[in-house]
Amino acid sequence: MCEDGVVLTQYGFFECEFEILADSATLNIEMTNTGDSPVHIFTIHSSEYDQWVNCKEGVSHEESTHLHDDHFFYFGDLSEMDSMSSSLSGELERTYLDADGFETTYYVIFDHPNSCDDEETSDIVDISFKVSVT
Q: Residue 100 is inside which H or E element, if any?
């Protein structure tokens, strides 16, 4: 589905967009990082994208019981903060409804850990990754 290598500077990110058309699917994320800085890996539903891109604080779905306008929610078992190498695997279910029925779009986002900081840094993230859905 998504396989690439990318260098991220401070305000950089890479997103892998995908859909789940069955009731559930297994998401697999493999990543290695040879850069100066670790990377954040977030797996989010498309309904959380605007909150993430606007630098809201991330909260794991598993840690929260209610919605907030000042947060975005990510799948904790399919996300990792400050990673230099990662192998994540888990099930995603098609459970979110939009006005037309089920919304099936998800993102895996590789995000520079300082992407929302005002203070500049020259640290880079240099990652190779593979994201697949089975």
A: none
Question: pLDDT tens for residues 16-56?
Answer: 999 888 888 999 999 999 999 999 999 998 888 999 999 88
Q: Which two tokens stand for residue 29?
A: 């994320």
Give the Cα separation of 122 and 134 in Å (integer). 37
Superfamily of domain 2-133: GOLD domain (2.60.120.680)
What is this structure's pTM? 0.89
- Report the candidate in 112, 92, 114, 115 with the shortest Cα–Cα distance to residue 104: 92
Distance between CA atoms of 43 and 72, rounded to whole angstroms?
A: 11
| Contact (CB, 8 A) for 109 and 90 | no
